Write the structure tokens for this entry.
Amino acid sequence: MQDKNFDKLAQKFAKNIYGTPKGEIRAAVLWRDLQPALAAFGDRKLRILDAGGGFGFFSQKLAALGHQVVLCDISAAMLAQARQQIDAAVMPLDIRLLHAPIQALSLAEHGRFDLILCHAVAEWLSDARQTLTDLLTLLEPDGLFSLMFYNKEAMRFHNLVSGNFDYVEQDFKVKKKVGLTPPHPLYIQQVRDWFDAWRLTLVCQSGVRVIHDYLKHQQPHNFSQQKLLQMELQYSQQEPYLSLGRYVHFIGHKQA
């Protein structure tokens, strides 16, 4: 089995993920979560790894705060987009682009990082646990790991309320895969168990898109995207809504 390379889907990915209301929700929830995590480091400049970060949405935001970022991705097309955006930035950004699979990252070559981001990557990996275990060898003691993953139970519930019962009964196996449907969604408890095994303390847990994906097709006349974003932020860290997030975001702290 091969891990997903987005070279052929780079434009579609960028548009669908961050050029839509659901992308705005994703960005808002993750940035809300990351800000107190960053504050815990104080004012010092951080070494940050954005593993499988595509065109570097968060790499660019973090570099704009003065941090040193390594953006690694398997897709040359995504990194080309990143280069265009970095070159067009109003201020210089300390971002090193690395064209490689995250499995190729080594401690000897790249050293350790204060913060590692791995967002919407695990569900595309044929062996997520081993890949992430290896990735965490690059995390500094007292460092933070930000992992966002595709939630299998939310995928199931969304298809149940959509009436896709055959798809659910077949455990989401279809003859023709949709390009942006991850093949390896994860269970929340499964990932919590991984964090325990990695000796990472969960300091943040959020659902991403806990409302958006369950909205009825016909909205009330006074429906507001801004109000939706506000509600997403309000309920994203409360159960049962957290566990209904299409994605789930964990931040783990590595004890020194």
